[in-house]
Amino acid sequence: MKFLDAEWFEEHKKLACAMFSEKNRNNVELVEVYENCYGQDKTIWTHYKLVDGIAAIVERGEGEDDIPEAQFRVFGDYQHYVQVCQGKLDPNKGIVTGKFTLEGNLMKAMGMLGTYAKVTAAKKVPGMEF
């Protein structure tokens, strides 16, 4: 299975839902937009919405026409997201250096780093390739 493909996503969704299954005060909506996927002019996005800490939405889509609106949207090249998953690029550094573009309140986003770390951990599906 390849990172971001449909098979990977089904496993990722299970992991994400398990990680975000306990009720708390965390209410956030995030869309990650992966550009130039697999070295092609292909856009894939993932959409996460937590309501009271529970994963209410975990979905995947393709194309630029139907990218959901959200509290936070992050745009970046596929290879940069791969580096984040591999632990070679800190997502904060990626935003500061322009590798990622964040739409949304930067200060609030910094407060959500723990949540983002869990989303990133859920991306590490056993057996996936980049």
Structural category: alpha+beta
Distance between the termini: 9 Å
Order of neighbouring strands in the sheet with most strands: 3-2-1-4-5
Q: The CATH topology is what?
A: Nonspecific Lipid-transfer Protein, Chain A
Low-confidence stretches are none
Q: Helix amount, in percent? A: 25-40%
CATH architecture: 2-Layer Sandwich
Q: Count structural domains.
A: 1
Sheet of most strands: 5 strands, mixed
For the secondary structure, the number of strands is: 5
- Spatial shape: globular
Strand fraction band? Answer: 25-35%
The CATH homologous superfamily: SCP2 sterol-binding domain
CATH first level: Alpha Beta
On the 0 to 100 scale, the average pLDDT is: 95
Q: What order do the helices and strands follow?
A: HEEEEHHEHH
* Rg (C-alpha, Å): 14 Å
Figure out the total of helices.
5
Descriptive notes:
This protein has five helices and five strands, in the order H-E-E-E-E-H-H-E-H-H. It has 130 residues and is an alpha+beta fold. It has a single domain (6-122), classed as Nonspecific Lipid-transfer Protein, Chain A, CATH 3.30.1050. Strands 3-2-1-4-5 form a five-stranded mixed β-sheet. A hairpin with a 2-residue loop joins strand 2 (44-51) and strand 3. The N and C termini lie close together (9 Å).
